[in-house]
Amino acid sequence: MEGGWSYEQKTLISELIQGANLAKQLRAHLSSASSAETREVLINGIINSFEKALMVLKWSGPVACQPQRVPAPAVGASGIPGSPLSVNGSPCSDDFDRSAAVREQFDCRDTSKKRKMLPKWTDQVRISPDTGLEGPQDDGYSWRKYGQKDILGAKYPRSYYRCTYRNTQNCCATKQVQRSDDDHTVFEITYRGKHTCLQGGPSTPAPPSPEKQELKQVTHGNHQQDQSQDALARFRNGLRVDTENLDGSNITEMPRPFSFRSSSFGFVHGETHSSSGLANNTGNHGGNLSSPFLSPSTPESNYFSLSPCPMTEFGQIHNRYRSESDPAEIISATNSSANSPILDLDFSLEEVGIEPNFPFNTDGFLPKLDY
DNA sequence: GCTATTTGACCGCG
DNA sequence: CGCGGTCAAATAGC
Fold first, then answer.
1. Which family is this sequence assigned to (predicted)?
2. Which of A26, A172, A187, A245 would give a disulfide with A193, using CB separation of 3.0 to 4.6 Å?
3. C1' of nucleotide C8: residue with nearest CA
């Protein structure tokens, strides 16, 4: 059924779910000793989600002007602080050029001021000089390089990437890749803006990652890459993924280099700390970050914050990686929300109160549940 | 021929 | 005015 939904509808649903989830997370964070930065990220995410949802409503033609079909979001009435949207505007007025207004809002070639309002976050990805595998792998999205700059005081140039689907889907996500001066095995990846394109994220095959190309530029010869491929193949063999059903009936080999969405906005890339892959999972579920498939987060990073109940925090689950040894165990899940300060990994269905044979929708949407 | 990358030019901001 | 970020023509690769 959801298969018949339009892109706008899916985006709208996704954004609203995401906004609601972020609000819940924010509420949780308000009562805890979390950092102001974390709260800021959540607030930005909420604002971003509702802005997008509102724009989709405006974008979706007559629907937006027919409250009897699509109720106006309550959030609109109170306005969004700092939102560029004119909530009190008259999108349904006769002379309102909706598509033009949407283009204005969504056009990536926007003023730098508006661009500055896009959420921004940074991942640090370490490569291993020994294996070459632990370099920044594919983050699940496809990027196109549009520039490279020598940065004052930096040893290595900075590369600029934008989403491949920038023009076709007006996806404004960009990222910058900068090799660290201090530790050349570390790449600092700054993401800006959230993907609004319909890439499948971590489950969709993507061209070779730009980071790998970065590595290519600074490492001479391809010996490292050969080793990388071997190790990756070993890892794949140990990993199964089920992107459709969780009843164990349709487990397939993981089709592609893996990357788990793990930071507030980015991904954590798998590393073969254990060459036998997920089957060697310790079974140490929930509440810890000891997944052998995660890069260790640095003290200053907020990458791997763990939700007490990750499943409830996900608005939409794309992939559910499961342990080979224990089908009820979810190794990781990725969600559609690029703004959730997530949340990993290593939890079991049981722990989050879901029956092992819980009938997940095939499109990844979680049915509404009261946890 | 199409798509991605490279790279010098350009522009806006501080 | 210098720097970071982006553009766009040229080039490379398939």
1. Belongs to the WRKY group III family.
2. A172
3. A146
Give the whole-angstrom CA distance, residue A207 versus residue A34.
37
What is the residue type of A23? A
**What is the spatial distance between Cα A130 and Cα A89, in angstroms, rounded to a whole number?**
58
Range A243-266 average pLDDT: 33
For residue A43, pLDDT over 60 is answered with yes
The nucleotides of chain B lying under 7 Å from a protein CB are: 4-9, 12-13
Which residues interact with strand C by a CB < 7 Å criterion? A 108-109, 112, 115, 146-147, 149-153, 158, 160, 162, 174, 176, 192
Domain locations in chain A as residue ranges = 2-116, 120-220
Scanning every strand, the nucleotide with its C1' closest to A157's CA turns out to be C4
Give the pLDDT confidence of A258-308 residue by residue, as tens digits. Answer: 333 333 333 333 322 222 222 233 333 333 322 322 232 333 332 222 222
Distance of CA A347 to the CA centre of its chain: 19
Beta bridge partners of A161: A145, A175
Q: What's the CATH superfamily of A120-220?
A: WRKY domain (2.20.25.80)
More confident residue, A123 or A100: A123
**Residues around strand B, C-beta < 7 Å:** A 111-113, 142-149, 164, 207-208, 210, 213, 217
- Give the residues across from A61 on adjacent strands: none
Dump the DSSP string for A181-215.
SS-TTEEEEEEES---S---GGGS--SPPHHHHHH
3-class SS at A362? coil
Quickly state the pLDDT bin for A157 (edges 50, 70, 90): very high
* Closest nt to residue A143, judged CA to C1': B4
Chain C: positions less than 7 Å from a protein CB are 2-8
